[in-house]
């Protein structure tokens, strides 16, 4: 979470991710090389976080075309859940 707190310090960017997801392209989470670097640095934390947020059953239901697809999905889901938490946790005037 510390790295995400550091990266996502703009509430407007957090709102955009909350509303539209990461598919629109956000710096540091666009290219497979960036996504893989983040994933392998935080692999255990990502798996634990997604299990806590979505449950074991949800993770087992995902289908992927490749390992890169799985990694991207896990990283993007983590960031999107994080942004949702940030919006829920933000003061009302910032979240609006």
Keywords:
96 residues; mainly alpha; 74% helix
Please tell me about this protein's structure.
The chain has 96 residues and is an all-alpha fold. It has one domain. The protein has helices spanning 2-7, 11-20, 32-41, 43-54, 56-61, 67-89, 92-95. Helix 2 (11-20) packs across helix 6 (67-89), helix 3 (32-41) crosses helix 6 (67-89) and helix 4 (43-54) packs across helix 6. The protein is globular.
Topology summary:
Elements: H1 2-7, H2 11-20, H3 32-41, H4 43-54, H5 56-61, H6 67-89, H7 92-95
The share of residues in extended strands comes to under 5%
Number of strands: 0
The largest sheet is: none
Low-pLDDT stretches = none
Query: Which sequence of SSEs, written as H and E, runs from N to C?
Result: HHHHHHH
| Estimated radius of gyration | 13 Å
Number of domain modules? 1
What spatial form do the alpha-carbon principal axes imply? globular
Could you report the average pLDDT, rounded to the nearest whole number?
A: 87
Class computed from helices, strands and strand pairing: mainly alpha
- Give the helix proportion (percent range): over 70%
